Amino acid sequence: MTRRHIAYCVLTCALLGSSFTVSRSIGSFPVLTGQALRYTLAALALFALLATSQRRLPTLRELVRLGAVAATGLVLFNVLLLAALRHADPAVIGTIVGVSPLVLALLGPLQEGRRPSRRLLLAGGVVVLGAALVEGFGHTDPAGLWAAVGVLGCEAAFSLLAAPLLPRLGPVRVSAWSTLLAVPILLLLVPVTGERPRLPTREEAAAIAFLGLVLTVVAFVCWYAAVAGLGVDRAGLFVGLVPVFALLTVSIVDGVRPGLPRVAGVLLVGSGLVLAARNVGQRVKQDAWQAPRSSSAPAASPASHGNSESSSACTTGASTSAAPT
C-alpha cells in the first residue's frame, strides 16, 4: 500500500527530527563506543524479531553489500557527522545533507537502470530549497565542509546500497545484519583512534537505549520498508521532512518561535512533496529491484514475508516510542 509506505517515511523522519535533542546528551561520550553499544542493542532486538520467522541467511555477495551498508551508512556516517560538528555549525551540515533528496532522485533510478523522473527531480529541488531555508546557514571551515559532504554521501549510500537486498531479505533482515556488522567495525576503530571507552552515565545510557531501540530499530525498518515499496527516488524526497520535524521539536522543547524564512521553508518542503505525490497511487514499477516471484525468493511487496515483518515492527515501534517522547 502506497499510503502505508508514505506513513513509514513520515514516521522515520519524525523520529530522526526529534532525536537531535536526545543526541545532545551523549555529546561528551566516546563516539565509537557509544555507536557500538547502540548497534549492539539494535541487532539484538532485530534478530529477536526474526526468531519466529522463516530462516533466510544472506549469501556471500549479499554479506559484502551489507558490510558496505554498515561501513558507510552506519559507521562512517556517524564518525563524519560528529567530526563535521566540530568544524561547522549544525545549520551548514543540515543544509548540505539536505541535498540527499535530489541525490536519491537522480541516482536511485540510474542504479535501477531507468531514467530519472523530471517531475521527481523538480520536486527534489523544491524540497532541498525548502530544507535549506528551514536549516538556515552558518559558518564552517574546509574540514567541516568536506566532512559534511562525506555525511551526504554516506546518507545516500545507506539507501542505495541496501535497495537491491530488500526484495529477498526484507527490511528487518537488512537492518539486523547491517547493524550487527557495524559493531566489529566500530570496535576495531577504537584502538586505532585512541579512544578511551568508559561506562555511560544513567542519562547517557537512556539516550543510547533510545537511539538503539527506537531510532535504529524502528526507523531503520520503517525506512527500508518504504524504500522497498516506493523506490529510493520517491522515498528519498521525504528526507526533507527531517529538518521540519527538528524545527518543530526545537520550537516545543526550547520554546523558540520559527522565523518567516523557516516557515516559508516548511511550505516549500510540503509543496515539493505534493508535487512528487501526483499520481502517487500508480503502481511502482515491478521490475525495479524485484526478484522473480517464487516461494524461494519473494519480492518485497506489501503481502510479502519481508514487509509483513516490517509492518509489525513499525506498528509496535510507533506505539512504544510515543511514550518517551
TrEMBL record:
Pfam families: EamA (PF00892). Residues 6-134, 145-276 form the EamA domain. Residues 287-325 are annotated as: Disordered. It comes from the Bacteria. The chain crosses the membrane at residues 31-51, 63-85, 91-108, 120-137, 143-162, 174-193, 205-228, 235-253, 259-277. Residues 291-325 have a biased composition (Low complexity). SUPFAM superfamilies: Multidrug resistance efflux transporter EmrE (SSF103481). Keywords: Membrane, Transmembrane, Transmembrane helix. One of its GO terms (cellular component) is membrane. InterPro entries: Alkyne_AA_exporter, EamA_dom, EmrE-like. Belongs to the EamA transporter family. This is Membrane protein. It comes from Dactylosporangium sucinum.
